[in-house]
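Researcher:
Attend to token order:
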Amino acid sequence: MKISTNWLKDFVTLAPPFARIAERLTLAGLEVKKCEALTQPADTLFEIEITSNRPDWLSHWGVAREIAAVENISLKNPVVDPDTGRTPPPGWKIHIKDAAGCPYYTGVLIEGITENKTPDFIVNRLLACGIRSINLVVDITNYVLLEVGQPLHAFDADLIQGKEILVRKPKQGEKFTVINGAQIELKADDLVIADSERAVALAGVMGGKDSEINERTRNVFLESAFFNPGRIRKTSRAHQLSSESSYRFERRVDPEAVDVGRSRAVSLIQKYGKPRHISAVIKAGEKPQLEVKTIHLRSEDVTQVLGVEVKPSQIALILTRLGLQVKQHGSEAPAVSNRERGGSWTVGIPSYRPDLTRAIDLVEEIARIYGFENIPETLPARPPFSVSENPRLSLERKVRYFLSGAGLSETVTFSLVSEDGLDPKQDLQQAVQIVNPLQHGLHWMRPTLVTSLLNVIKKNVNAGADSIQIFEIANIYGAPPASKHPVEERTCAIALYGKKAAQTWLDAARAVTFYDLKGYVEAILASAGCQELCVAKIEKSYFAGQSAEAIRLWQTPLAFLGEVSGDLLKKWDLKEPVYYAEISLENLVQHACRTPTFKEWPRYPAIERDLSLVVKEAVKSGDLMREIQGMGQGLIREVALFDLFRGKRVPEGCKNLAFRVVYQSPERTLVSEDVQQLHEKIAQTLVQKYQASFQS
């Protein structure tokens, strides 16, 4: 937006160099991007960048108000029409049918305009700001828009049917011809200004062709209103229509400026248009009020946030310079030992500052005017303290280092996926769907990483790779029925395909197996300090048959792994098996042992014994190991499964498990007889409890 310094001089006293004022405004938050000097007429323009939360800066009066606060100088108000001793226009009425879209609407009838030439100073100021001159009335509405920030619209009063103004929603299928000649079909959420027969303006956005002002216009109905910012923004976007008016209405105009802007325009029309008669103002609705009208502020709040002590009298002065109403709490305290006692205030918020809602907002205003450059750089007064690392990030780094060191490559894939390869019941039922995806076909936030890694494998296979071992640490997403909002879970996924490269010159390359994958998963869980793990069979739609296993800690699932089903391999045209695992880092970090404990080295020798049992297929080796450990009377250091056999001498439906049991006492040397008795007792208990046959 361009601001004329000649125009600013109507409100504040300015003197060159203007670059100094531009720099001061920029330091205070109102960025002046460029200063431009004009010769005909002589003027200096500020090109300013305005943030969306400061619509009060979208006018010369608003910028002058900021200069007055920054420079601590007085501010003049625009000359307005007193509007006294007039009568309402006979027969004219205003009806607001959509109060949510237009809370407040005003109008005045101006009849018998005799002059139509725009004064040179108005033409020059408009041109300097990038607006061409059209005719007197339109130029004055544009002039007032740039001066006080209130958009106005002037109708040819003779073209308003029925002397009636209706603010309403469009009728179904209603069409409207805008002032540039284009015809649009109105939408249900639009807001229109209509007479008794048709729409004559798209409220807050653009006027209509059927009621526009021209050189022959002598009678004008001047509109000034407050429109709902959200409705104007939606209408402007829907019809791709933008104007200086919509730009301001979208950001919320000052409700008090509705009357000020109208009165300012009437004053200018009366002076330069010399109308025969001006009516009294007719109004409908009420001005919207601020949600927060007053804020309580203490000087301690300012000192605590800024880190510098600003005197209470200076705080009150700055707030007053900003146009806020400042009321001191208690009596004013005199200076004591060159220091002032802390103060507190109730600060009234003007209607043009809806961005001020909390005490911290007032502190920011004080900092802007006080000057950020005047706040010294200081070190924190409190002593330094250590910051512990996020446990999850620490776990992620450990997992990443382990898998990278084991020869796996890390991938980064897109969070949005298609439904290809996902099970409608298991995966998509609780998945998060995107309404407007960034890429066509990718409608789902991935509930699993399996399809993402299959895409990576497929791309590498097409490039000629025959050994692909990859992992990814990323989020998966879901919308559980018990949760009001979607959730994301940090996950580590591993996928193995093709051959496993030889580790040394003595080895040979071989195909990867399920146990390679299981070894990686168990190593990660072991490095996190998880013990007493339970392994169980699970069913997943993307795993082949009963090849999938889940690893839990008590009832908390930590990981699952298995061989990818043939159906998925066909979808991705993969010829070799793919082994896939997912580890829940969210659950793992909650049960990880962050501080490993040291056990004293054993002082006494250990004795090893083996147990070979034939049990039913349904019996889990983990249950047998826990049973053995529990019967050890504190003398068993380790139980390990070292052999699994199914064959000729083992009955069908059974398996032979061989365990190595290490006996060791921390207090004495065990004798063979004690160990043998305990070993036989354990064996007999397993035979009785699990219907096992014991083999020595």
User: Anything to note?
Assistant: The chain has five domains: 2-71, 93-285, 295-332+340-374, 391-591, 607-695.
